[in-house]
Amino acid sequence: MLIAWPAPDAALAAAGAVILLAYTVYGLTGFGSSITAVPLLTQFLPLREVVPMMLLFDLTGGILVGLRNRSQVQWREIGRMAPFMAAGMVLGLSLLLYAPQRTLLLALGGFIFAYALWTLVLRPPVRPLRAAWAMPLAFAGGLFTAMFGTGGPVYVIYLARRIEQPQALRATISTLVFGSGLVRLLLFSSAGLYHQPSVLPRALLLFPCMLAGLWLGTHLNRRLPAHRVVQAVWGVLLAAGTSLLLRNL
C-alpha cells in the first residue's frame, strides 16, 4: 500500500480543531464524537476518508474511556436490535462505496439538519416505545452508522424509551456503539477503505488532537453543564447541515 503523508496545510489544521472539539464533547458527555466531527470534516475532506478515520478514533476513545457499568447492560435489547443493525450496516456500506458523493453529502446534511432541528426546537415528549420499533430504528441506525458514523442518535431514540435507569441506558448505549464499531472495522477493512493512501497517515497526525480533546472534556466534566455544551454543539451542527445541503443541491 502506497502511503501518502498529508501536507501540513490549512485543511489539516482545521481537521485538528474539529477533532479536538468532537472529543472534548465526547469527554464531557460520553457520546457525540462522530456526529460532531463528520459533518464539519466533510466540508473540506472526502467523506470516504473521513468515515473510516473517525471509526479508528471512536474505537480508541471507547477503549481509553472504558465501558463502565457493564453489569447493567440490557443484553435483551441489544440482541433485539443486532440483526437489523447488521442488515442496515451492509446496505450503508454499499451506499458509501458506490453512491455518488454528492448524494451522500446531501443525505448527511439532511440527517444532521433534521436531527439538530428536532433536538433544539421541536423537543418532542419522551414516550415509551414498543419492542417492535427495534426493527426500523435499528436498521436506520445501522444504515447511518455505516455511511457516516452517525447512527448513535437513532439508537438513543429507541433505547431511551425502553430503558428507564440512566446507568443501564448509558451502559447499553456504550456497549452497542462499541460493538457496532468493531463490526464496521471488519466491514471497512474487507471493503478496502483503509487501503486509501491518506487515511492512516492523517489519522496518526490527528491522533494527538483526539487525546487532547478527551483529556480536556474529562477535566471540564465537573465544571461545565454537559447539556449546555450539547445544545451549543447542535447549534453548530445545524449550521453545518445547512451548509452541506446548500453546497450540494
Describe this structure in words.
The protein has 249 residues and is mainly α. The chain has one domain (10-248). The protein is 76% helix and 0% strand. Helix 1 (10-29) crosses helix 9 (199-220). The protein starts with 9 loop residues before the first helix and ends with a helix.
Total of domains? 1
Specify the helix fraction band: over 70%
**How large is the count of helical segments?**
10
Query: What is the H/E order?
Result: HHHHHHHHHH
Say how many strands there are: 0
Strand content: under 5%
Major sheet summary line:
none
| Poorly predicted runs | none
Shape descriptor: globular
Radius of gyration: 17 Å
SSE class: mainly alpha
Mean pLDDT: 84
Question: End-to-end distance, in Å?
Answer: 35 Å
Features of the shown structure:
mainly alpha; 10 helices
Q: Can you describe this structure in just a few lines?
A:
The protein is 76% helix and 0% strand. By secondary structure, it is mainly α.
Task: Furnish the topology, listing elements before pairings.
Blueprint: H1 10-29, H2 33-41, H3 47-65, H4 75-98, H5 101-122, H6 134-148, H7 152-159, H8 166-191, H9 199-220, H10 226-248
Helix pairs in contact: 1-2, 1-9, 2-3, 2-10, 3-8, 3-9, 4-6, 4-8, 5-10, 6-7, 7-8
